[in-house]
Every structure is written in C-alpha cells, then in structure tokens.
Amino acid sequence: MSISKYILLLHQxxxxxxxxxxxxxxxxxxxxxxxxxxxxxxxENAWEMSRRYxxxxxxxxxxxxxxxxxxxxxxxxxxxxxKPRRNWVAIAASVALLAGCFAVWQLYNSPSTAxxxxxxxxxxxxxxxxxxxxxxVVLNENSSIAYAPDLQTGTSRRLNLTGEAYFDIAKxxxxxxxxxxxxxxxxxxxxxxxxxxxxxxxxxxVEVQRGKVALExxxxxxxxxxxxxxxxxxxxxxxxxxxxxxxxxxxSWRTGKLDFRGAPMKQVVEALERHYKIRIDLDGxxxxxxxxxxxxDQAPIEAVMETIAVTLEAKTTRLAESEYRISGGxxx
Length: 332
Hints:
The protein is α+β, with helices and mostly antiparallel strands and 332 residues long. It is built from eight helices and 18 strands.
C-alpha cells in the first residue's frame, strides 16, 4: 500500500478528525514493522515543527533549499576526505526533513482535508445512508463509515468501514469507489454487494449481489475479481479466497431471508449462527457435510431447527437461550 495513504491518516489523527475505522487501520500499519513506526514518529515530529508557523505563512521551498545548501557548503571541511560524504548525507537528511515539513504544511492547509463525515450505529441499530454521489448504504449494527464531504465532486470516491454494510454504488466509470477496511480494499464502479469487516474478526468478507467487485489485500497479491453470486474472503495475511454463494446468505441481516439450495450443513449452520446470533453444536452428528435445502423468510429459529430435524432425521436440542445442539441424522 502507498505510504502517502498513511501519511494522510496521520494528518487526520493529529487534527483530531480520524475515524475509528481509519484509526484501526493506522495502528495496524504502524505495528506491522519497526520502519513504519519510525516513519510515523518522523511525520509527527515534522508536524510539531510545522505548527510553529502562522496560518498565513507561505513557504518558499526554492529559497529555503538554497539557503540551507549555502550554509552546508560554508561549513563543509576542505581537507578531511571522509567529511564530504557525511555532509552530503546530512544535506540529504535536512532536505528530506524540509520537504517533509512542507508536505505536512500543505496537507494541513489543503481544502481537501476537511473533517470526515462519520456515521455510526449501536447494538440493535441499523441506518440507511445516502452518500453525496448518490450511492446508498445500509449500515448494520455496531458499525461505522467515514467519508470525505467532497465525495461527489472529488477526484476519487473513498469510504472507510468498520463492521458490516450493504452498498448500492452509483456508477461513475471515471471515479472507482473504494471501501477500505482493516485488512482489505473493495474497489467497484457501480454494483451492489455486502461487506463484513468487524473488529475482532480476522478477515474481510464481500458477497456480491449485482455487478463486479475487486477485492484486494494489503499485499502485492493480485486483486480477486468477484461476480454476482460469489463471496470473497481476505484474511489478515493478505490471502484471498473465492467461493460460490448464489443464495447470498450474508445479506440475511438486511433481508430477513435465508435460502439454502443443497448447501452443506456446515455452511448452513454458519449462516444460522450469524443470522440468529446463536451457537449450534454439530459435534457427534453425521450430517456435517449433508446437503440441505430450505427457504425461510422471517422465520423463528425454532421453525428452522424443526425443519432440519425432519429433513435429515436428526435430533435438535435447545441447551440454553442462544445455544442448540444437532445430533444423529444422516444424508438423504
């Protein structure tokens, strides 16, 4: 990933308008390698120096460089052979610091760095958001998005996401829409899809309803192109996987519908656990890989468990308020 992205995140942090999603992304980058942390500290130090200038100050980079070079040359030793090399290293370092201060000054005084617009949801809350470019977002509970206020007119369309959301992106071939999560970027032109990237889950999931989506991790691995009815997974290490998902179970939190068409029971259980926020124990059951078909629309979990029991001749037991066990049974 480009380091300029993280310099911008550092700038937003220093101004106090960094979103929670971006803060997580920045912390992850700084903790990845010692050189990243060193780069972060250097940028912060450069900003502290640049804060001493008045807001109306207009730096003359050319004159500043000329003065700096003149002072360095005046102090440069004429006889000792090793000194010139060290001086040029010092000059390079000083010029780099000067350029860094100037770049940070530009960031802080650029009109494009206005405070991000943030939208958050609490437990049990969902929100529908219309973005400035016409795109629609449905935000699931315990989630947040952040985007620049010039999303409609800027040179790019970018949004940070923590949690889960459904996106219906307005088409704009000249400006791809990018959704940034902790572990991955989702790049689209105009399409509809679901993204899940909750904190504490070591992966980003994308399930495409319409159009085409590119899923890319924070590595040099080529992006994974996903079509309608496909799900992509990006893990912490940057590895990518694609699986067929024609029933779109990841969308059930929004639609209330679950549609299984010969899906292995292991996948069915995973979808049920996520949708109903329960735990289902399949240990000791012989139906883990059995295919299961069934359609449920706003159905209570008891009705789903009864259908599974009848279809696969299994026994379902409620162990606690949000815990079930399926035992016995077999494939048909």
